[in-house]
Amino acid sequence: MRARTCSAPLLLFLLSACATMDPGPGELEDPSPLSPRFANLQRAAQYPWTDDGKCVVREASNEWPILAERCFHALDRDRVRFRDVTKRCAVAYADAAAPAVVALCVFAAPEIVVGAVIVIGAVVVAAAIQEGIDAYQRNASRERVKPKAQTQTAQEPLSNRTPKPKGSPTGDIFPPPPETTPRRPSCEPIPVPHAGGDVPHNECADKFPPNRYPGMDVFVGSERFDALQVGVRVLWEIKTHRFDTYPDFIQERELDKEIAQLTKERDAARVCGYDFIVGVSTQAHKDALLQRDESLKIVVTGCKR
Questions:
Q1: Quick one: 30 exposed, middle or buried, by C-beta within 10 A (0-12, 13-18, 19+)?
Q2: Which of 46, 85, 151, 202 keeps 20 to 30 A from 168, CA to CA?
Q3: Is 226 exposed, middle or buried (0-12, 13-18, 19+ CB in 10 A)?
Q4: What is the phi/psi pair of residue 103, to 5°?
């Protein structure tokens, strides 16, 4: 399957709007210097920005990959060089659009990879970012504001209450009938926590594509995927089990199950306009899957168990 690409002008247009993510009046944020917002501000302070860091400050409450994607247009890229040190970002892109896509992918990686982003010349911390850092350092020494207590509504005496009919959580005498027309699954990506507790698998899903929502799977259409790649419409299914060590009979049964799963996921991704890539740990696993379905797009991640 040929990976869809995104031209540089289109990529930058899609990233050109910064959505305000500041907390509302009734919300509280952790003023600790160890908070994700503070960590994002510190990381962004290393780079030059054309908007004085305003987009970064607005988006700092998000995960770094989301911040990087939304504010990439404001980065002074004349002073920044990107190196795909891990070779993860360019794995599916080989045409003229690749430099812009790879640059965003490298910049938005959840972890800081030494030598991946190189800044030319000295950097003066952007004014808005410095103000945000200063504010957090001041707030870190103050006691957190306690939310106002909710006023409880006086309850009726038990003798005056009307009992709810059994089977009706709302208390309706005649509850509404269940929906008969199924709703169409949404094509909007819905992040949900990684399923299960497979730490090596989840780390691979977060770092290899890399994942736009670290720590999260994503629902698209009717299927659950291990990752949505930063900066592009590509969904990933990650396999890290030790396929090579299985007996031949078990390998065949595993391939039957995987091909059925991957076909469903690829179809769901295509319906919603996403590309689909399978990440496996070994070349042998890739070869075995391609023998079953040569149209699959498969990448060897090298992720260990």
A1: middle
A2: 151
A3: buried
A4: -60, -45
Assigned token pair, 213: 């929502």
pLDDT, tens digit, 9 for 90 and up, residues 92-145: 554 445 677 888 888 988 888 888 999 999 989 999 999 988 888 888 766 555
Give the Cα separation of 126 and 140 in Å (integer): 21
Provide the whole-model pTM.
0.60
Helices and strands (DSSP H and E) totals, the chain? 9, 9
Q: Which segments in the chain show pLDDT lower than 50?
A: 1-33, 94-96, 151, 166-174, 176, 179, 182
Query: Which stretch of DSSP H or E encloses residue 215?
Result: none
- In a 10 Å sphere around its CB, with 0-12 CB exposed, 13-18 middle and 19+ buried, how is residue 216 labelled? buried
Fold annotation for 190-300? Trna Endonuclease; Chain: A, domain 1 (3.40.1350)
Domain-by-domain residue ranges, the chain?
8-139, 190-300
- Report whether 66 contacts 59 (CB < 8 A): yes
Radius of gyration of the chain measured on its C-alpha atoms: 24
Cα 271 from Cα 263, distance rounded (Å): 12
Compute CA 100 distance to the chain's CA centroid, rounded to the nearest angstrom. Answer: 19
* 47 touches 80 (CB < 8 A): yes
Distance CA 1, CA 33 (A): 45
